[in-house]
Design brief:
Blueprint: H1 14-38, H2 46-52, H3 58-64, H4 77-93, H5 108-124, H6 131-162, H7 167-171
């Protein structure tokens, strides 16, 4: 076996490209603010086009340039990717995403830890998220918690059946004579 190691591609130009995008976004925001100062009659639609045409920087570019981040409440694409990544890990651990076999593999400890990480992020980022980002985080946590509880109940019911206890009889209450 050869000791060549992994092949890595390092994009050296990313800093210069990010700086150009940041400067372009700053120019657009300055132009927009001068237009809105000249015509204060209602919100302009230029804010939406500036956020999308900034070369993918989104609210991260606006925050880096000193401008307010996502006044329209846009979700930072990096934040959205982070939420998606953590949600995917939790869904994988909850057995909602196939691992390539016919068996469902559930790892409640891993799912619990991932959900707790999302809860910790929500607590630590309180006040630093746009309304849309907070909604995305809250919705993600709520959905994962619901799936977690459902999986926990399924596993408890399965364990009771294996022990010879019928879970449906436990839920019916006291036996009628």
């Amino acid at each position: 076996m050869a000791d060549s190691g992994p092949n890595l591609f390092i994009d050296e130009d990313w800093k210069a490209r990010a700086q150009r995008e940041k400067e372009e976004l700053a120019r657009r925001l300055a132009a927009e603010s001068s237009r809105s100062a000249a015509a204060p009659a209602g919100p302009s639609s230029a804010g939406d086009s500036a956020g999308h045409a900034g070369g993918g920087t989104g609210s991260a570019g606006a925050a880096a340039s000193g401008a307010p981040a996502s006044e329209e409440g846009q979700v930072d694409p990096y934040f959205e990717m982070l939420m998606g990544s953590l949600a995917t890990q939790a869904m994988f651990a909850l057995g909602m995403i196939s691992q390539g076999s016919d068996r469902v593999v559930v790892n409640l400890d891993q799912a619990r830890i991932t959900i707790e990480m999302l809860l910790m992020l929500r607590e630590k980022m309180k006040g630093n998220l746009t309304d849309d980002e907070a909604a995305l985080l809250n919705d993600t946590v709520a959905e994962l918690q619901q799936i977690f509880v459902a999986r926990m109940q399924q596993l408890e019911a399965q364990a009771m059946r294996q022990a010879g206890i019928r879970p449906d009889q436990l839920k019916s209450g006291p036996a009628e004579s």
